[in-house]
């Protein structure tokens, strides 16, 4: 899907009346964003609601996703039974739904989301999780399965708010826990109600359509951008952050802008297992950035906040240079031979 980042950023700032947009945190929903768990939830919802005498389709499970479970039950019961059920009645149905969900196969991580988090972490952008779930079995594994990326201190669950999505409260709490304001926050959601909550909280909200709904349903709720897959967002997050800076809309400070470009360089080296080449025009921006910053490091001109990361990048480059040289070694000789296309591995 072709994205016009500048247009989306301008529309977002005008909509909320912001004079700046400088991302410092990204808040992720959990089900359907971190884990491919929505099919399991849908099956558990359909069965538990049927047992209670309520009708709920699989698509309904996706549409109501993000709302606190007890609120979803009360809403559907009011629509179908014409009365407001008690907290105890709603909780009993939700407990059964949770039991049935626990019997489902383990859900894997959404493809690309961990790499996206690692990239954000490299750029010193805070990561938070905002979910309507109150199932301890799901929440307990987050810190373990996303070690070093997700912490309980920056996690919002159904226990933290009295009003769930689509109200803005969960994302307002998420920003509070991360110490940021709306114009410093990006929300990543997969469900219409979650998108509505992120928009209502004043955040730049990105929809990633990991379920069966049409992408237009996310756009209608106010998503500034909609991606078909999480891997697409992963692959374009650096470009998006650079667009914020390059359009002079985000006012990313120089330090943050440097880390954005550092992440791009490191990602190129690790993805291609080599350094950028000065002989490839499309690689010149990364090539020149590394060359310039290595000189600054050599001459003691790099700020202290950048030295460790620049050294890490150079170490990574050297490791791949050695590996690539070894790949060209003549096995008939007892010594390694230099690579014939040495320019690919370190002429910077």
Task: Describe the model.
This protein has helices at residues 5-16, 38-51, 58-63, 69-81, 87-102, 113-122, 136-145, 169-178, 192-200, 215-220, 230-246, 254-272, 284-298, 304-327; strands at residues 25-28, 126-130, 155-156, 185-189, 204-208, 225-227. The protein is of the alpha/beta class. 52% of the residues lie in helices and 7% in strands. The chain has 14 helices and six strands.
Percent range for helical residues? 40-55%
| C-alpha-based Rg, rounded | 24 Å
Strand content range: 5-15%
> How large is the count of helical segments?
14
Brief characterization of the structure:
The chain is of the alpha/beta class and 348 residues long. It has helices at residues 5-16, 38-51, 58-63, 69-81, 87-102, 113-122, 136-145, 169-178, 192-200, 215-220, 230-246, 254-272, 284-298, 304-327; strands at 25-28, 126-130, 155-156, 185-189, 204-208, 225-227.
Topology:
Layout: H1 5-16, E1 25-28, H2 38-51, H3 58-63, H4 69-81, H5 87-102, H6 113-122, E2 126-130, H7 136-145, E3 155-156, H8 169-178, E4 185-189, H9 192-200, E5 204-208, H10 215-220, E6 225-227, H11 230-246, H12 254-272, H13 284-298, H14 304-327
Parallel strand pairs: 1-2, 1-4, 2-3, 4-5, 5-6
Descriptors:
single chain; 348 residues; alpha/beta; six-stranded parallel β-sheet; 6 strands; disordered C terminus
């Amino acid at each position: 899907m072709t994205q016009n980042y500048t247009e989306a950023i301008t529309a977002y700032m005008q909509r909320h009346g912001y004079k700046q947009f400088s991302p410092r945190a990204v808040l992720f929903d959990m089900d359907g964003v971190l884990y491919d768990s929505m099919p399991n939830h849908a099956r558990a919802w359909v069965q538990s609601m049927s047992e209670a005498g309520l009708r709920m389709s699989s698509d309904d499970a996706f549409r109501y996703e993000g709302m606190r479970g007890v609120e979803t039950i009360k809403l559907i019961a009011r629509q179908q039974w014409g009365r407001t059920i008690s907290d105890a009645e709603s909780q009993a149905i939700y407990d059964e739904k949770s039991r049935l969900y626990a019997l489902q196969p383990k859900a894997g991580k959404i493809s690309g989301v961990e790499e996206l988090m690692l990239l954000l972490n490299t750029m010193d952008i805070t990561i938070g999780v905002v979910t309507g779930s109150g199932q301890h079995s799901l929440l307990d594994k987050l810190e373990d399965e996303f070690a070093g990326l997700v912490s309980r201190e920056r996690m919002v669950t159904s226990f933290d708010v009295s009003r769930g999505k689509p109200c803005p409260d969960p994302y307002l709490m998420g920003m509070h826990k991360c110490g940021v304001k709306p114009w410093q926050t990006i929300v990543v959601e997969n469900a219409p109600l979650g998108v509505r909550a992120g928009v209502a909280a004043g955040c730049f909200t990105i929809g990633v359509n990991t379920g069966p709904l049409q992408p237009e349903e996310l756009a209608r709720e106010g998503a500034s951008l909609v991606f078909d897959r999480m891997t697409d967002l992963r692959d374009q997050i650096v470009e998006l952050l650079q667009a914020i800076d390059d359009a002079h809309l985000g006012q990313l400070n120089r330090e943050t802008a440097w880390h954005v470009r550092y992440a791009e360089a490191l990602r190129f080296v690790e993805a291609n297992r080599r350094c950028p080449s000065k002989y490839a025009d499309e690689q010149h921006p990364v090539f020149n950035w590394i060359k310039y910053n290595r000189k600054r490091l050599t001459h003691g001109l790099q700020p202290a906040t950048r030295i460790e990361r620049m050294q890490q990048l150079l170490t990574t480059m050297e490791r791949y240079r050695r590996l690539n040289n070894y790949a060209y070694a003549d096995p008939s000789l007892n010594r390694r031979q230099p690579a014939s296309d040495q320019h690919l591995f370190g002429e910077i």
